[in-house]
Write a structure and sequence with these properties.
alpha/beta; D-Maltodextrin-Binding Protein, domain 2; Alpha-Beta Plaits; 3 domains; 6-stranded mixed beta sheet; 5-stranded mixed beta sheet; 15 strands
Length: about 280
Amino acid sequence: MIKRTAYLGPKLSFCEQAAKLHTGQEQGEMLECSTIAGVFAAVEEGKAWQGIVPIENSCEGSVNETLDLLAYDSGLAITGEIIMPVKHHVMVREGLRTEEVTHILSHPQALAQCRKNLRHHFPGVRLRELPSTAEAARMVALSDKPWAALASAGAATAYGLSVIIPDMHDYPNNETRFVAISREANAYVPESKTSLLIHTRNVPGALYECLHEFALREINLNKIESRPARTRIGEYMFFIDIEGHKDDVTVQSAVAALLQSAAALRILGSYPAARFAGV
């Protein structure tokens, strides 16, 4: 298979930045996709050997589309993670004043991450959702309408836009976590994380019993989040990230116990824990 990495485009998106950080010096070819589902499809169909997609933000929480694709529509494994700071800037075509802006274009997560500041600086201005921040910048650059984009400084430079308000995000420590997905699981590496998907039984104490297995073995949890099981109201699946590799003895023991108590369990992948990537 060609060493090609699929990512949520267009070029200059935060996802492309994460993909380049993850691949490092061995970038190979990059395959731009217009949707998160398109990234998954490219990997599943063999058009790319791995894909990079956003999975959660430190302020706005999880990207539900990515979680749902992992849970219900894909057999791909998580093979890596990238955590990077995300800075959003308001940008316009040269000469457009702040008070003239009628619409602000961006990705839904970016708009949500800047909600308070947008209300303060642009009361009454309409917000328009697009597949990515970079696509918002591209559309503003090509349009003759009084629009602004919420995107990265790199996008402003590439499309010849002027930043009128920098650092629009509501919280200065705004970070997004991206994951690498592949058809093949990773080989063992130390200092790993493992992502699990657990469907608990609909009985009292079911979630407690699952979490107790980790506590008994002193396995630290990094994340737990529920998503509807798509069966009936009140039934949920849980995404759980733990410290350790699926081949570690303690993790294997916990998984064996969970298989006895949970309705279903799936290991989504074990991968090296990310270090903060300042960009």
